[in-house]
Amino acid sequence: MGVYLTSGYRSEQDITKPETNDAYQYFGKCSHGGPYDDSKSDIAAGGINKEGTDPVLAPHHYHHVQAAELAILSTELFLSSSGYGLLNKSGEEAYRKLLNLGTGATLAFVIDVSGSMRDEILAVQEEAIEIIRETNGTYDAPYNYVVVPFSDPDVGPFIVTEDPQKCIDFIASLSPYGGGDCPELCNTGLEIAILNSLPGSQIYVFTDASDKDRSKAEEVAALAQTRQCRVDYILTGTCTVASLHDNDANSFNQQQHRQRREDILFSDSYSAISQKSGGTVYETEKENIGEVTEIIQIGLGSSKVTLLKWTGNAAGNDTNVDFLVDTTVSEFSVSMTGSEAAPNITLIDPSGKQVQFNGTNVEVVVNVDFILAITATLPDVGLWTISLNDMQNYKIDVIAQSTVDFSYQFLETDDQGVTFPAIGSPIAGQLTLLSINVVGREQIGNADSVTLVTSDGRYLMNYMLEQASSRDDDVFITTITTPIEPFTVRLNGGDLDGNLFSRLMPTQIQAQSFKLDFVSAASGDLTPGGTQVVQFILRNEGVNDTFTISASTDNPDEVSVTVMPRLVFLTRKQHVEGNMTFMAKDTTAAGTISTATLFASSSSGATTSLVTSQAVVEPDTEVLDVIRPECAIISTESTCTGDMMDADNCADHQWQIVFEATEEGSGINAIEVFPLANSTEYELDTYTLFFANGSYKSDCCCPLVTINIRDFYGNLGQCSVDYYASIANTTDPPPCLPQPPPRPTTSTIKPNTTMLPKPVDDGLSSGAIAGITVAGVLVAVIILVTLIFVCKKMSANKKISSNGANTKEDAHEHNNPAYSYDVEHTYGNIEH
User: Fold this and answer.
1) Is 184 left (phi over 0), alpha (psi -120 to 50) or beta?
2) Conformational region of residue 176, where left means phi above 0, alpha means psi within -120 to 50, and beta covers everything else
3) What is the pLDDT of residues 28-87, one digit of tens each?
4) What DSSP character marks residue 652?
5) Is the whole model's pTM more than 0.90, yes or no?
């Protein structure tokens, strides 16, 4: 009997381990086992999990490597096997979006296109197009581009593309229109940009108006925090108090509804979103917009890291702000805004000398209105100081060019001891596991600790780090007590030369008193015109409070979403379960991917967000499909003649075809190619729901191929090439086809008639008839006894090796430890 890999039952799952039906109590279904599995004491006792190499946690730890390798192989086949993998089924673009496989970051613009934004649009077009052209094909090029125009009442259409020229063409096509009443739908446009951007991306918002959809501000801020997207605003105005209540759409009164920057403060929601996301609000005059857009260049690039983010009130010459420069930093930029006047600062290098602006290695990038930005190249290593020389509020960012950075995750551990990434913000006052992943670990000496820092630079707490495992020297962990006050995370350590270094993740973290989570997978498929339900749970860990629940999608024109309940009162430690429902329009195409975000807000305004797994619109199989897929050979290269198919030299001759498949009904479900042998090569170049093409290559030892295209209703389209058919009657089949069985011989052994009496045809005697009857009865008895024996044997085997194929877990039998043997049968999923 061979050794196989399988899985076992575990307590607290949605399926219970069946009781044994063995009279001797020796055999039963297998348990997962380990310290967190209560079913391990049930017959058959013990466990078979192979989750690791620790014998305490994994009873079958000695099979871990084999199980892990098989799991990896199965995952690769599921994701990328030719013809059947998820990649080929969904197409590359949908596949990358579904699994969030974009590398690098998104460059996103959210642009107010109302009538008064003509100057800003021209400046954005000039700067954005220049940036795209300069970075195209370089290491600093973004992974993709997102552009979302907005005004009121329209948002969009918007573009998400990896093609730089398509982005340039879209930006160039923007022109101002409408916008009679001042407030615009800025937050709606920003939400779409965040949902369509990669995590950790940079988003720039250009507007001269307040936000009409201010009620969405907390949700958008929470979404930006969750996806760690930094939002910078470039503002050239805002709305008067009167205009906020005046919805007159006459463009004639437009200038009466907007005020210049120096006359009124910008929207509080813009400040809140930028601060929580780690961004900044830059205010300027319309005539200076072209110069201010230069600040976009500072934050761009694949190796940009944050050294400092500080917000505070300067108290004259006594206010100094410090930051560290290490040996991996090749350049840094300081950008800042003053609340009342142009910044008045002194920059001091590690030697204590004052740095002259516009010197050899220092350049002033922006110096207009209340904004100052300078860049220093090849800076000295050590502690730099920004000395603030006046009395006003400052916002300061120091961004550097370096290949050393970090990311972090908050982790949770369930009752079974399994650790997984936490969803949403951590709970205030609770112990929380923090995981740090250091990028460029080989370029630093050590990562020592993390510091929780407030926006004004105060240190809330410092925690020492320890390496997560001996295998991953770039992953560190620590346990923190989550503070109530908003904070950012700073990593501290030393470079290879022993110099101190630090990196800051500028996204602000606000601990919460409630938790939002999903409790079930989506119910059924989402089809055009149909719905799909996902259950969620909201737990209140704080004081009695009222919560508002809402949701949105990144493509509301294709798939919308609703929630129930929308308003709920919860006492401390109380929870409520609800439903979030995806609704696809009748016209939504199969293959459309929709990402929904679920929000919960307390009455105090604290907000958390949860981004769901994407919903994929499937073909509507309720609609009858009787159309066969089409398959066609669109090109051939070489051929096989009879001589070329000779077994002695067939391997010396090659042939190749290219085929194309189209489907107009339910979609392509499977592509089957026959035969496949060692001498054949089959490759799919394109595989989408309604189109596929590929190639087949072989030598003349296999001179034929058949390609079957099946849709979701089983309709079959077929195309083939067969060079063997013309000579099929003159030679044996080629080696890649099953060979016919050997022909039976026709010779017979004749009796020796000289030794036998000549037969007489007198019919059967009574004795012969009796003999035949007795023999027949004996044969019948033997057959019956044999059948009974076989059936009993099969029944016994079934008791020993029943696989429970209809259960969620594989349910093979496992013997009592007192009669233990190390054999596992496989009939279900791999557990590793």
Assistant:
1) beta
2) beta
3) 788 888 887 888 788 878 888 888 787 878 888 888 888 887 888 778 777 776 656 777
4) G
5) no
